Amino acid sequence: MTTLGVRIRDSHLAITSMQELVRLAERKGYTSVWLPESPGREVFTELTALAMSSERIRIGTGIVPVFARLPTVAAAAMNTAATLAPGRVILGLGIGHRPAMEGGHGVAFAKPFQHTREFAAIARQLLREGEISYTGDIYQIKQFQFDAPPPQPVPVFLAALRPQMLQLAGAVADGVLMNWASPDYIPEAIAHVRQGAEAAGRHPDEVEIACYLRTCVTDQPDVVEAACRAQLARYGSMTYYQKYFERIGFADEATAMAQAWQRGDREAAIAAVTLPMIQATTIYGSAETCRQRLQAYREAGLQHPIIAPFPIGEPIQETFVRTIEGCMAAD
Question: What percent of the chain has pLDDT over 70?
Fold first, then answer.
């Protein structure tokens, strides 16, 4: 069976539209659906709605920022969803970004790496055993217990870009969720995950390797490139992504974007994104071309590619449907 996921999120997609897309993905043979959290859209509620409108497909949060929840509360929310869709839900966690956490949520963005390590460890134990006592630098939990543990253990995935977080995912999570990766970066990323697993006394095969891949089935590549250029520029305003883009071979672009955003010059940031950067990090073109590119990622070692359709100026539902249908080869 071909493992292929789809990221479903856009501000113009109502929950009813998302339910239709999940049912389409399930009919086409996709194995997972992933939901980022955005302002005003609570991800566990959406996940539960999608789980109840589908039958087989796995549904994951991709991601829940660790500073916006308590680990006990996040685990309890996922435990509730797991009772409705046993064996089908995944808790995806990540650090998030300082401006969104401090400016948007009003919480201190302190010790992000340690915070993520402890949050993941607490949530994972609760979602396997249903109870925990824990003493860490961030959390001290005397005793917390679910009324009933999940019917099946719920996997915990950790968002990661660079070596330290990739190694942490290998040490404490059931999977890693990458973003904006080029095929060339996949083997390096996997090596870091394996290193983290082995250092923690785990077998590296216990950690599933997944990645969001911006994807669009289209006969208008210039339109896609313009849309993708703006997306990459937006990510280039964030410190973590600036450093990440440098690491995967786009240091000049990352520097130019950072300098442009420091001046408040959005257009210059967009102009700093080059065509090679777009082509390395985005899948677009005919359905056959997109499937070939997905296969290249698999051959590089990616176990769980997750297509992430994105707006290109047409009704977003059309983009999702065409891309979901095109990227899964007919039996």
Answer: 99
Residues 6+ apart with CB under 8 A from 326: 217, 286, 287, 290, 291
Q: What residues form DSSP beta bridges with 305?
A: 211
Which is it for the CA torsion 310, 314, 318, 324, positive or negative? negative
- CA dist 44 and 64 (Å) reads 9
Number of domains in the chain: 2
Spatial separation of the C-alpha atoms in residues 276 and 134, rounded to whole Å? 47
224 is in which domain, residue-wise? 220-285
Q: Are residues 107 and 79 in the same domain?
A: yes
For residue 79, which amino acid is it? N
Q: What is the pLDDT of residues 14-67, one digit of tens each?
A: 999 999 999 999 999 999 999 998 888 899 999 999 999 999 999 999 999 999
pLDDT digits (tens, 9 = 90+) for 203-260: 999 999 999 999 999 999 999 999 999 999 999 999 999 999 999 999 999 999 999 9
**Residue carrying structure tokens 């700093």:** 272
pLDDT at 331: 55
What does the block give as tokens for 38? 């955005």
Q: What angle do CA 218, 221, 227 make, to 5 degrees?
A: 95
- For residue 134, give the CATH number of its domain: 3.20.20.30
Assess whether 169 and 121 both reside in one domain: yes
For the chain, the straight-line distance linking the first and the last C-alpha, in angstroms and rounded, comes to: 10
In angstroms, the CA 3 to CA 287 distance is 17
pTM above 0.70, yes or no: yes
Residues 92 and 9: beta-carbon distance below 8 Å: no
